[in-house]
Write a structure and sequence with these properties.
- It contains 10 helices and 11 strands.
- It is an alpha/beta fold.
- Helix 5 (130-139) links the parallel strand 6 (116-120) and strand 7.
- The structure holds SN-glycerol-3-phosphate and calcium ion (CA).
């Protein structure tokens, strides 16, 4: 058990709770983030949308139809209107109804106890939310790399975030089916977020050799477990999991 082994050992793979513990509570709600926080993950993953009156809320989709009892585009509602809807889900045979949280409510609830891995989700390339986001993080005293990581599919958003908060680590997300190693290697961002199905071991090795970190997300719940096992063998840096308990066991048994 010499120093050599310690030096050679990689950092542990980080676990990011994808929209909270979405296997046990309505995604992107305080209930889902509470479970994830209790499970002890490395970061809470939060997708952001902006309301008509400029408030940032945790919501993945542009439309509220899939996850709530309402219909329509998030952007067409004020916060007060949006709060009249609830997210709806069924867990263990019981219906769960939870409000849509604002980012501010999330930051107030967990403060500096959690790390936030926040995704700016844009309609087109309209840069509406970046300044509000950075201001809010600053107001809550978490605008620092130990508390926040930011991610986006949008190059325009990442460029703006770089201007506003150069100290915060940024992840360039690549859409499923669009991963190209040469483009990823040329990305100005330190971390690449790719869909598991697009990644081969040689890609991960090439990115890490070039000094980039690789975070992996999964879009197919039927294959997520086997895909987690597969990409974990490649020496990735982190993964966005929908199944925290499974992922913790997977990483513990290495
Ligand atoms: O943010 C990583 C991953 O969540 C990207 O996919 O569509 O679930 O936001 P999506
Ligand atoms: Ca996301």
């Amino acid at each position: 058990q010499g120093e050599e082994e310690l030096v050679l050992k990689d950092k542990p793979v980080q676990i990011y709770a994808h929209r909270g513990a979405k296997d046990r509570a309505n995604e992107a709600t305080l209930a889902a983030y509470d479970i994830a926080a209790k499970d002890g993950v490395d970061a809470l993953e939060i997708d952001l949308r902006m309301t008509k009156d400029g408030v940032l809320v945790a919501m993945h989709d542009k439309m509220i139809d899939r996850t709530t009892d309402g219909i329509g585009n998030v952007e067409t509602y004020t916060l007060e209107q949006l709060k009249r809807f609830n997210t709806v889900g069924v867990f263990n045979g019981s219906e769960m109804r939870e409000p849509i949280p604002t980012l501010e409510e999330i930051l107030q609830r967990y403060g500096k106890r959690e790390t936030y891995y926040i995704e700016t989700r844009l309609v087109g390339d309209q840069l509406k939310m970046e300044e509000t986001l950075i201001q809010l993080l600053n107001d809550h005293d978490v605008l620092a790399s130990q508390f926040v990581m930011l991610q986006s599919f949008s190059d325009a958003s990442l460029a703006r975030l770089t201007e506003l908060a150069p100290e915060i680590p940024l992840t360039k997300l690549i859409r499923r089916g669009e991963f190209k190693l040469d483009e990823a290697l040329q990305s100005p961002y330190q971390t690449i977020g790719a869909e598991a199905g697009d990644l081969h071991e040689a890609d991960v090795q090439a990115l890490r050799t070039a000094g980039k970190a690789v975070h992996v997300y999964f879009t197919d719940s039927d294959t997520e477990r086997e895909e987690q096992q597969r990409v974990n063998e490649y020496g990735i840096d982190g993964l966005f999991t929908d199944q925290i308990e499974f992922t913790k066991k997977l990483l513990e048994t290495e």
